[in-house]
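Troubleshooting log. The previous structure file for this entry was overwritten by mistake, so regenerating from the original sequence record. Sequence copied from the archived sheet and checked twice against the printout by T.R.
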Amino acid sequence: MKENTIITKITEFFKRLPKLILKGLVKAFNVSKPSLISIGVGLLIGFIIMLFFDAGDAFPALGTLLIGGFNGGLRGIGNTLYQAAPIILTGLAVAFAFRTGLFNIGASGQMMMGAYVAIHIGVLWQLPAGIHWIVGFLAGMLAGAIWGFIPGILKALSNVNEVITSIMMNYIAGNLLIIFIMGNVFNSNYSRSLNIQKSAELPLLTSVFPGSTANIGIFIAIAVVIIAHIILHKTTLGFQLRASGFSMPGSKYAGMNTKANVITAMTLSGSFAGMAGAIAFLVVGKNIGTAFEIFPQGFDGISVALLGLGEPVGALFAGLFLSNMRMGGFYMQRYSFVPQIIDMIIAVIIYVTAISASLQIIFKRYGKDFKAWRLSRKEKKGEV
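Regenerated output below.
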């Protein structure tokens, strides 16, 4: 009897499976509608500009742009995934802070510190091959967490705006990076950090993507996104973090420790960006120069968080999309267009995303009042 019951339940599940999948797809489409519209508008404007500059190459260039890393076969796909991992994690860092009512614009600095600490361990420490990269990765994560903790504690204890402090921390990180590299892992011939030891390199995926720099970083990024989603939406801690972001006074009234929540949110956000730095630079041949440079992936993270509508899972898909677009811009150079056109398209996408998301919030909040006002107007006209 039990076996028959189990078989019946399995059969019923598979009968309902198509409906469940369709329902999930419809829900996902409705949620991601602002981002999809924004992508369409951004690509359309980019295409119109390409038509003005070179109408003959505009169509094939657009196709190359959309195909992205797939233009290069397995190698191109592997390079896309390698570039996507740090972008996803910096996007997650910004999105996580968004969800808790904070704006972490310091992902770039947090990524720098994570990258430096990972390279320092990779160059100077002597550890077994199976442990070396793990220690470098975890240390990079810790460095990013500390760099996020500082704006968090300043916000919690002194109510210092986290936007200002995190921007300042970016510049402090950039200058410290130069000092640390010149003092510890400086290569006098090339004015850059030395190559890390082979034992410190993240395991590569060259057997799957030959000729590329793909490594397990993409799997780490996906796992971290899932963990962040669970923390935010399935745990008491996540509820308290989101509640503090939604209403700080309300959270205080409910007995929550809002100061601890702010510090926790910024520290976790910083740890994600620190992971991004470790993943990006725990690769043999990937070095940090001694010229002052703000890591662009940190600011890409803001774009990814906005395009992903402030959700961890959204940051995953937005990061993959952005990385694929950047690879498409690289391959688009075979035509008469420069890859910088991607930055313009992404800027349009972000602006439209912000506008459409704002309009949705306005309609959701004031839609009923507007309908009631229109109904009262109609009733008054009917009376007259």
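The first strand starts at residue 186 and ends at 187. Archived copy saved in two places this time.
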